[in-house]
Structure formats: C-alpha cells, structure tokens
Write a structure and sequence with these properties.
This protein is α/β, with parallel strands linked by helices. It has 2 domains: 3-121 and 263-315, D-Maltodextrin-Binding Protein, domain 2 (3-Layer(aba) Sandwich); 125-259, D-Maltodextrin-Binding Protein, domain 2 (3-Layer(aba) Sandwich). Helices cover 45% and strands 19% of the residues. The protein has 13 helices and 13 strands. The chain has helices spanning 3-25, 28-36, 52-65, 77-86, 101-109, 140-147, 178-188, 204-213, 223-228, 249-254, 270-273, 276-295, 303-315, and strands at residues 41-47, 69-73, 92-95, 115-123, 125-128, 137-139, 169-173, 199-201, 217-221, 234-235, 237-239, 244-245, 261-268. The strands form 3 sheets. A 5-stranded mixed sheet has the order 2-1-3-13-4. A 5-stranded mixed sheet has the order 8-7-9-5-10.
C-alpha cells in the first residue's frame, strides 16, 4: 500500500468511527428508539462473493430488528462492486481486497471518497476433490507453476512425477473477483497474472460444485465456502517454506496460513452515511461482527485490531 493511500485510509477510518461509535456508545436504548421510530429506507450493497455471507447475515438480522428497512446484497465481485459503488449506485461495497488506485480515482471523479472498514479475516482456500489422495499438501512454487500465465501443466504427474498421470481441471474466481486478484499476487507474484484456461465463476457455489464433481480438479475460493462444504471437498495444505499448513480459524488468525490469510472489508462513503438507515446498518455491522462473522465461517478481527481501530478515533 502506498503512503498517500494509507494516509487516506487512516483519515477515512477515523472519520467513519467518529460517526459510528457515538451510536454504539448510546447502547440499546437508542437502538430501540430508532426501531420504535420506524427507521425506513434502503441500504444497497454489492461486491465480493467472499464477503457476501457476512453482509447477508448482517442484512437478515438487521432487517429483523428494523423491518422498515430493506437491505439488498449483490455479488458482482469486488471489481464489479467498486464500479457500481464509484458510480454512485450502491451505499456499501463488499471487498476481499483493498481498493485499487484506479478505483479510488474513479470514485473521486464522481465526488466519492471511499471509506475502508476491515470486518474480518479470511483464508483463501485451495481445494481438491476427495478422490485426490495425493495432493494433500502443495508448495507455493507448485501452485505457481500450475496457475501462472502460459503454464503448460495439464496433468498431475507434471507437477510431481510420483503423482498420477491424470488430467488437472482447474476452477477459480473470475477476473472481477478480489479473490482472483489476491491469489494471483500471493501465489503467482503479480496481480491479475493467471492462465485463462480454467472454469471461472463469480459464484463460489458454482466452483464448489465443479470441484465436487470432478476427480482431477483443483480450485480456490474463500474459507467459509470450503468450511460449509468440507464433507464433499477437501482442502490442500500449503507449504510456504515452513511445512504444510491447512486453513483453519486458528491458522488464519495467527497468520500461520501464509501467504493466503487476508483481511476482508466493506467500503462506504460520506454520502451514504448521511442516510440514517445506512449509518444504523454499519453501526449494527460493527456491533455484531464478533458474533455473526464466526457463524458464517470467517475469523473476526482480534481484540488488538479492534483496539487499534478505536485508537484511530483518538488520533483523529
């Protein structure tokens, strides 16, 4: 992250916390008053399919507490979500990566200053069909050789000679996905650098079904989708030079699952926060993250991280 954007991020986070935390500090009485007062309107969210389960869970619970508000959650992918967000179509953008400089400029062209809010940790999970009993652990270099642009590897014994002479069928997110961006940078070493002869989808459930149904398959997506389907697909442990590490809530939170542990975000803007229902929804999101984030299979931010965010309020 460059210094200019980091400063922008810290200022924006301080601003949003100044707006939000007084609401949380008022406790249940103010929340009840909002509900009794009939909070109404819409909250529009789009973006990452990986962050979608968190925002969907938040939307469902928020609407129960606030029946006058309608919250819509789409899955256009992180890149697609930012296009809508920067075009003024949505209030909140789900993102499985940080916003890019080009996206910041697009937002600014439309008078929008993006406000970044980290909401959880994820472990981008490499998966295989359960019939595959040989690739239980793969090195980062092996994954790179398979996924890099121009790769000629099409069979498992081309990865390791002791593995079977069986076709590899690849599944992964499409190019609008923040998961695609993160994987290519972490594994291949360059964002957006990937072979293109694989089955791509913006819907992670499609990828789960593909890996489940194909004995020679290899794919990747967010940890929550793996955990939800662990009875029909298997994870690949990743060796980054310190031995094989499987994705788990513990290994993701501790950072041992490297280099595929990553933060996930929502983005909003001052124009959206001026809407009472959006401001109340983000208040609800932050106030319920420690409960709902693990319920949908992700890792909530640590107490230290929440303390760091609270410190930004003091600094700003």
């Amino acid at each position: 992250m460059n210094t200019r954007y980091k400063a922008l991020q810290l200022r924006a986070l301080g601003a949003v916390l100044i707006l939000i935390l007084p609401l949380a500090a008022c406790g249940g009485s103010e929340q009840a008053a909002r509900e009794d007062g009939g909070l109404t309107g819409m909250v529009t969210i789009d973006g990452s399919s990986t962050v979608f389960p968190i925002s969907e869970a938040m939307a469902e619970e928020f609407q129960i507490a606030n029946p006058g508000v309608r919250v819509t959650v789409g899955i256009s992918g992180t890149g697609g979500g930012f296009k809508k967000f920067c075009g003024g179509e949505t209030d909140i953008s789900d993102a499985s990566r940080e916003i890019k400089e080009t996206e910041i400029e697009l937002c600014r062209e439309n008078g929008i200053e993006p406000i970044e809010i980290p909401v959880s940790m994820d472990g981008l999970t490499v998966v295989r069909n359960p019939a595959n009993d040989w690739a239980a652990c793969m090195t980062v270099d092996e994954l790179k050789r398979i996924w890099q642009p121009g790769s000629s590897i099409t069979r498992w014994n081309e990865v390791r000679p002791t593995w079977p002479d069986e076709e590899i069928k690849l599944y992964g997110p499409d190019t609008d996905s923040g998961t695609f961006d993160y994987f290519t940078e972490a594994i291949v070493g360059e964002e957006d650098a990937s072979r293109d002869d694989y089955t791509a989808s913006a819907d992670d459930n499609v990828l789960v079904v593909g890996v489940q149904g194909d004995g020679g398959s290899l794919g990747y997506f967010g940890f929550a989708y793996y955990e939800e389907s662990a009875d029909v697909i298997s994870a690949v442990a990743v060796d980054n030079g310190d031995g094989c590490v499987l994705p788990s809530r513990e290994s993701i939170e501790s950072g041992r699952y490297a280099p595929l542990s990553r933060p996930m975000y929502i983005y909003t803007k001052a124009q959206a926060l001026a809407k009472p229902q959006v401001r109340a929804f983000i208040d609800f999101y932050l106030g319920n993250a420690t409960t709902l984030v693990p319920e949908v299979g992700y890792v909530p931010l640590s107490a230290e991280r929440y303390a760091e965010l609270a410190g930004l309020l003091v600094e700003n």
